[in-house]
Design goal:
Layout lengths: L1 H10 L15 E4 L6 E6 L17 E2 L1 H14 L18 H7 L2 H20 L3 H7 L7 H17 L17 E4 L9 E9 L2 E6 L4 E6 L4 E2 L15 H19 L12 E5 L6 E10 L4 E6 L4 E6 L3 E3 H6 E3 L6 E3 L6 E3 L5 E3 L8 H35 L3 H6 L12 E2 L2 E2 L1 H11 L28 E2 L2 E2 L3 H6 L14 H6 L3
Antiparallel strand pairs: 1-2, 2-3, 4-5, 4-8, 5-6, 6-7, 9-10, 9-13, 10-11, 11-12, 14-15, 16-17, 18-19, 20-21
Length: about 500
Amino acid sequence: MGNCQNSSANNGNTNGLYDESRPPADVTDYCPICLEKRTLTFQYTPESNEHFISTPCTHRFCPKCLAQYVGFKCSSTAEWEIKCPIPECAYKLSNLDVRRLTSQENHRMWSERRNGSHLNRFLQNDPTMLRLMNVKTEITWFREREAERVFEEKERNSKSLKEGLYNKSFQHGTRVTATYLSNVGRRYQGTIVEINNNLASIAYDDGDFWGTCPISVLRYIEDDGDDDVARVSGDRENRRLAEMARRRREIQINSRLKIEDVTIGLRVHAGWKSGNEFYAGTVRSVDKKNKTVEINYNDGDYWNACPIARVRDLSSQTETKCCPQCYVIIQKAEGCDSMMCVCGCYFGWNGLQPVSDEVLRELVKKEDEEGIKYGEEEEEEEGDDDDDDNEFMSAAEMEKIPPAPAGPPPLLITQNGSDPDELLEFYDSQNSTPPPPPYSQLKTPFSPINSSKSTKSPNVGGYERKSILDMIDEPRVGDKENILEIPQSLRSIFGM
């Protein structure tokens, strides 16, 4: 302690405290650790400790001894608080002290233990920390939504970036909004615990802690007396979620049932004894006097006194939701859970999560491959069924088949051409006029001719009777389009 008094006297401090306006200079004295006469350095930095209490320490140590002491504490002990080596001194080294005196690996291990300790203390509702941070853990749903609305209105009406912490000095205990474990994303309210150059330790209102938050993501919150609100949004993603929550609340309000509309056996969505979630169930009984209903939930639970205010229409809860991209209300009538909105957004009905174009292309490709494979299997099965039916047809069933209607005999095609005599004899016996030959594939079919100019064969019904080979051997004279084009099917028959 004599060293402390000497250094205080050398600095002109009669009360033993450190004067930031007059930083002490290095002196030559005995080190309290190695007890050797060395050049001693004042190690305290003008920074508050973890409890926002400024307890200056004026003890001096040689840098090597103090660095070994801090390194041993960081690597070998489970406690993160490192006190001054002097037993009577209550000062605890700050983050800047530890970072300056030890290696990067030791500082990382020490920071992890410190952050974990802060988180555990918040989770255990440490009264001392809550009192110092001015944080209230019980936040009602109404106050949270009201503060969210007020914050968004302030953000719209003011230039929050210019009014942020860039133009203000960072201080311990300053109320800010910051992202969590990322430079982008949703913003949450919290309090600055410690400042370390370009990094800050943030204690969020809901109990989380981030010890290495960049200063660039912080935004200043004006003190309006409403500092006990958790997780107030300020970015686009949270506004999207807030808009979807607002639409869901509108649907829930519009789908509320009156006690007169509730009947036994009605399928509804009802809340549980705690929480804001709704679950599907069936009304078992109705108490109109107390305005309660008895609900049998689909998952097996049972509540005999569910307030009518927590009962919703099942159809509006299950068939009506909001598009995650344009927030339009969509009603699902039937089909699978794959939905497509009018804005072009593909999403799943249950989770309301958009589906990217890459995933859609993979699904379509997979469905096409499975569809081709499935179609080939079905064709093979159908062919097998037809063969089985013909194979097992009995003689009695064959007799029941009606006879084929009478018609002209088949046109016999020989090497020299068709045999028209049989066809003419058939039509003469029927006293009917034969139709034109069914050669619709030809560009120039049979056309009516004058019988007086016919020199090859008699005509029947105003059509010249010719075989197909005669037509091939006798090409027409005229335009290019009047020349006969022989189909490939006929060419294969005649061996052309």
